[in-house]
Amino acid sequence: MNMMNRMSEIAAGQRPAQAYAGRQKIYPKLAHGKFRKIKWAVMVVTLGIYYLLPWIRWDRGPNLPDQAFLLDFANQRLFFGPIEIWAQELYYITGLLILSALGLFLVTAVAGRMWCGYTCPQTVWTDLMIVVERFWQGDRNARIRLDNGPWTFEKVWKKTGTHISWLLIAVATGGALVFYFRDAPTLANELINGDAPAVAYVFLAVFTGTTYLLGGIAREQVCIYMCPWPRIQAAMFDRDSLLVSYRDWRGEPRGAHKKGQSWEGRGDCVDCTACVTVCPMGIDIRNGSQLECIQCALCIDACDEIMERVGRPKGLIAYDTFRNLDAPSHDKRVPVRLIRPRTLIYSTLMLAVGGLMLTAWLHRADLDVNILHDRNPMFVQLSDGSLRNGFTLKILNKQHEVRHFRLALADLDGASMSVVGFEGKEPVIEVVPDDLRALKVLVTVPAAMRDRLDGNATEFRFAIIDAGDGSVTYHDATFRGPENER
């Protein structure tokens, strides 16, 4: 039916109604107050950490990278200061992600989307882009006039300066991110000289483009339409969650107010819309809790400033709970309850996950051995009737010093072992610090001992002996016989 109506409108020469409304550009005004100062401080700290972290050095000894924070995907390992995580230990990263998610749940249960309003990368970079825009084009009213005015020389150079600055910020952002994946000074020199790997330039371009688009152009649309968190967050709220709220019991009925007028019979809200003009999402907090609100609290700063001017108490817009907003009497306020079932559950889960990770880390082995049986062929029958199995033995030395190992067999009486490259001598295997060494090992059972095999699959163990301290670790393996032949 809708399609037929649209066709009828077109046939009648009428312009069909748009299915979706166009974006109304938001021009947030600069706010002043304690929450704006907090946001400035958070922006400086978070951006400082992001841009400077790849350049911090950490001495790990010879032949190891000295970058404190390095995602060394080429060598399948991650460095976080003194902590090193190998590809086989990515469950630690899983644990950190779980802790981060639970932490976000806990923060949301306590104070709504405070993460979104202060520390979310999208918010931080959007704030930075708005600062640049305000520098070139002025505050809210000046930007509106500039956009609505004709294309003059002034408008061209102000817009050009804005977008060039955005691009420079985007390049610095993308450049900082690629530095996390390779030694920063080396990669920076390669990027400047044109010697960096092609993949570095590709990712630099991708990160630059996304930062420019999301932080400079899309802005609030990312939070409203692209981010799933606004649609999930309500599940973490309860009646004791602190949310930025308009206290309508105090503000209504609203209306303009002139100096000297009585406040009898009316609310404190003077309908100045200052709370709307500073909002980076362009919403009116007086309409109640809304999906778009990121709890940045700039509307609190704006409203407090107006209340101070008109001689009314601050706090018309404030962090408050549903329990207090819906209370029959607003004279007796219920204190904020931080300890409640929801927060206890999240905190307990965080402690449990953190405890498991700490236990696993304290019992973390500095040696990792992986044994792979050859699959084609599963075994070889030699001319004298003996059977031979091939194995690939991988030894990962997680210590920052050279180690030497010897190999032996256990639970496979009469069998012999040889290591390719060590023929005719006892193998003493050297593994350099923080590296993996793969060896080809051949295990042979003589013909006279074949009747001692346990069917077509005999379980035995490799003994890995540390030549330094004499410690022995055993690793299970299986010797295959003729019945496995296919």
- Quantity of strands, as a count: 14
Helix segment tally: 16
Percent range for β-strand residues: 15-25%
Question: Please, how many domains?
Answer: 3
SSE sequence, one letter per element: HHEEEHHHHHHHHHEHHHEHHEEEEEEEEE
Instruction: State the end-to-end distance.
Output: 66 Å
Shape summary: elongated
Helix content: 40-55%
Tell me the structural class.
Answer: alpha+beta
Largest beta-sheet details:
5 strands, antiparallel
Radius of gyration: 33 Å
Mean pLDDT: 90
In the predicted model, the low-confidence regions spanning at least 5 consecutive residues are none
Protein model, in words:
The two termini are 66 Å apart. Helix 2 packs across helix 5. The chain has helices at residues 2-11, 34-52, 91-111, 114-118, 121-137, 140-148, 153-178, 184-193, 198-218, 220-226, 229-232, 248-251, 274-277, 298-310, 322-325, 341-362, and strands at 69-72, 77-80, 83-86, 243-246, 317-320, 367-373, 380-381, 387-397, 403-410, 416-419, 428-431, 435-445, 457-466, 472-480. The mean pLDDT is 90. The radius of gyration is 33 Å and the shape is elongated. The chain has 3 domains: 34-233, no CATH class; 244-330, no CATH class; 367-484, Immunoglobulins (Immunoglobulin-like, Sandwich), CATH 2.60.40. Strands 6, 7, 8, 10 and 12 form a 5-stranded antiparallel sheet that branches. It has 16 helices and 14 strands. The protein is an alpha+beta fold and 486 residues long. A hairpin with a 5-residue loop joins strand 7 (380-381) and strand 8.
